[in-house]
Amino acid sequence: MNSIILAAGEGKRLRPLTTDIPKCMVKLFGKSLLEQQITTYRSCGINDITVVTGYKNKKINIDGINIVQNKKFDTTNMVESLFCARRKILDSTIISYGDIIFQKNILEKLIESTHDASVVIDLDWKKYWEMRFNNPLDDAESLIVDSNGFITDIGQKTQNLDNIQAQYIGLMKFQNDGIKNLVNFYDESKNNSTKVNPLNPNLPFEKSFMTDLLQGLIKSGCKIKATPIRNGWLELDSVDDYNIYEEKFSNGKLSAFFQDK
After folding, report:
1. Host domain of residue 195
2. Residue 253 domain-assigned?
3. pLDDT in tens, 177-235
4. Number of structural domains, the chain?
5. DSSP string of 88-145?
6. What is the pTM of this model?
7. CATH of the domain at 204
8. What is the pLDDT of residues 82-117, one digit of tens each?
9. Cis link prior to 16 (omega < 30° from 0)?
C-alpha cells in the first residue's frame, strides 16, 4: 500500500502564511501539515509516500518521500495533480489532500476497507462547519449515501440540508478494480473533453475538482463506498481556520474535533 499527497496548491486564502511557502508547509500546532500527514502514514506502516508539489516546490524538503512536480499547478486542479503521479497509482493507493490532517484511527479505518474505491466522509460535519463558518451552507457540498453505504451524490452546491448527509474530507483509497476504473475513466474523460468537459461543463477539464471525478465515476457505474467517521480531522483553508484552530488548541477546546495524539 502506498500514498499520494496532493500538495501543489498555492493557498491564496492563507496569505501571508503562504507568501514564501506552499500551503502544505504551514505549521499548525508547531508542525507543518505535510509533516503531520507523513507521520500519520508512517505510524500505519505506509512508507511509500509520494508528494505532488507545485507552488514553492523547493520549500518541500523532507527525507524519505517521493516528489513529483505539477509544473502547471497554477492552471490546473486536484485531478491533474493526481495524474502527475500516475506511475504511483499502484495496486492499493491512498490519496489525500495536502491541506488536511487526520488522526491515525481514521487512516486505519480507511486501510481496513476491502472495497475497490473508498472515500472518507464526516457524519458530524455540521458542528465542525459551524465552528468555521457563519453559514455552513455557504461552503458545504452535497453528499448522499444509499442504504448499502455507497455514495450516490458528491460535491454539488446545495442549500438543502437534506442533500448533505456528511462531508467529504479529501481522503480516499483505490485498489484492485478501483485502480483500473479510476485510470480508464480519467483517460476516457480527458479524451472526450475537447469541446465540453464531461466531468464539469462549467470548467475546462484541467480545472476539474476531485469531486467532479468522483461523481463522474459514480455516474459511470462505479461503486464508491463511504468510510464514515465522526470528526478527527482538520482542513486548513484560510487564515480564519488557522486562528480558530490555534486558539482552541491553546485553550484545550480543540479536542472536541481533533485529538493531537
Report:
1. 2-240
2. no
3. 999 999 999 999 999 999 999 999 999 999 999 999 999 999 999 999 999 999 999 99
4. 1
5. G--SEEEEEETTEEE-HHHHHHHHH--SSEEEEEETTHHHHHHHH-SSGGGT-EEEEE
6. 0.96
7. 3.90.550.10
8. 999 999 999 999 999 999 999 999 999 999 999 999
9. yes
